[in-house]
Amino acid sequence: MTKAQRKLHLLSWIVLSICIPLGFISSFLVIPDKIMQENVFLNKSIQLENILTKSSHDNLIVLLRSDSEKSKYQLEVIITTPFKTPEVGTYISSSQNFIMDEAYYLGNLGSANGKLFSLPSSLVQQEQIQVVLFDPIKNELLKQITITP
Amino acid sequence: MSHQYKAIHWNPQKKAYDLLIVLLIISYLLAFVGVSAIIHPNLDPVNLLIRAFGSLSLLLLHLVLIIGPLCRLSARFLPMLYNRRHLGVSTFLIAAFHGILSLIQFHAYGDSNMLISLFTANTQYTSLAQFPFQVLGFFALIILFFMAATSHDFWLKNLGQNFWKRLHMLIYLVYILVIMHVMLGVIQLESSPLLVIFLCIGFSLVIGLHLLAGWKEVKLDRQLQELKDDGYLLVGSINSWEEGKARIVNNGKQRIAIFKNGNEFSAISNRCAHQGGPLGEGQVIDGLITCPWHGYQYRTDDGCSPPPFTEKVSTFNLQLLGDKILVDPIPNQPGTKGEQVKL
Predict the structure, then answer these.
(1) Hey, is the C-beta of A2 within 8 angstroms of any chain B C-beta?
(2) ipTM summary value
(3) Do residues B69 and B209 touch, judged by C-beta distance below 8 A?
(4) Mind listing the pLDDT tens digit of every residue in chain A (149 residues)?
């Protein structure tokens, strides 16, 4: 290297020796107290052992499951004939009249044979649970199922 | 020997170096994936690969960056420098895997183009805590791409050594972008302090070594040789040379390497015509001065590479005064014969 190149290298590292620790400390100081990251796991939920209710509806079988202590609940939806629409949102509605923004969104039913959704126990305390399958693309209600826990 | 002379083409050393790189990469990926699969058996495989490639490219970037100063500080590390460009290209490829997988995983499922999504999914550019760190990684990857694409000697020759060097000094910009990419990205979301500790050790090592090596070089540049009445610089007694090795002096503008080869003393520029390597830290092999960085060779008398190679460096005239070797600080034209001292 030439003398000028050697000087440029040293100068660059003097600048970096100031900038990198400054950036490091600044970023370190803004780390949130609450860690937001959660590991993303495959959808391999284990079915809870107790079946509270089971009902069949044309192309669906819907099961309400719980553990032995009834502290955890699951809604299992088994698709016997696939939906034609690619996006099937699964919601829990608090009333017979489904309003998407007010309903509790469980997740996309997807194209798999079936899906398990965790249910907050507060939802299971109601007399009846309205399970709504809704196509958000066409804005079309596909199915509404009433379950009595 | 010229019919067998291969400067930087494929040779056993280069193959061994590349094999080592491949083994290092495979071992790391297997270890990372294996350990992660044991700790988090249900972890999404794409996320696992993103982490594996990301952490490996960070590790390789540190390795690439410490080789230079380590070699300036001790000749023992010179073998690591021999094929560093392949280590650099590997770093780019691993980082590219990390970048492409991240783009697909986090930006491919929306209704806008992945690259548009990269820049518009998070626009909190004024917030440090919420800064769109992926953009920093993206720019680092683009710079690495240009560096990898121009790493071949074809580009070194066509772009010129000075421009090529400056282009490849952008690795320092890449480094700060990557550090901030990690700090504003995964560190903000990571519960374990291990990554912060490793990163802190990593950049302290990189900065420390570069400052140490840079300071050593600047100090050498400031050491001027004793100037004699006739304008020649005093190098030293003829007994102070190791056989086949050089002593380096500084004429205020550049360094001169004065080699002893048997009973002959000859002086050439210390700067290799290939990548500016320190010829004076090399040695005479088969009668040719050999650069310690990549093995480029020059004849002792006229500073020309043996045919079919065409590189040339400047020579300098020498004088013998008693048992002392003196060197004319004014260089001869590259490739012209300099006055040697023959005992």
Answers:
(1) yes
(2) 0.80
(3) yes
(4) 777 888 888 999 999 999 999 999 998 888 876 555 555 555 556 788 888 888 888 888 899 988 888 888 888 888 888 777 777 889 988 788 888 778 888 888 876 677 888 888 777 877 788 899 988 888 888 888 888 87
How many angstroms separate the first and last alpha carbons of chain A?
A: 79
CATH number of the structural domain spanning residue A60: 2.60.40
Q: Is the pLDDT confidence value at B94 over 70?
A: yes
- State if pTM tops 0.80: no
Decide if B207 and A36 are in contact by the 8 Å CB cutoff: no
Q: Mean of the pLDDT values across residues B33-46?
A: 85
The rounded distance, in Å, linking the Cα atoms of B262 and B282 is 16
Number of domain units in chain A: 1
Decide if A66 is inside a domain: yes
User: Contacts of residue A40 in chain B, CB cutoff 8 Å?
Assistant: 43-44, 47
- Taking the CB of residue A13, how many other CB atoms lie within 10 A of it? 23
Q: Which of B232, B241, B234, B260 is nearest to B324 (CA)?
A: B234
B47 touches A at CB < 8 Å:
yes
Range of the domain at A54: 50-147
Geometric angle at alpha carbon A41, from A39 and A46, rounded to 5°:
130
CB B177 within 8 A of CB B139: yes
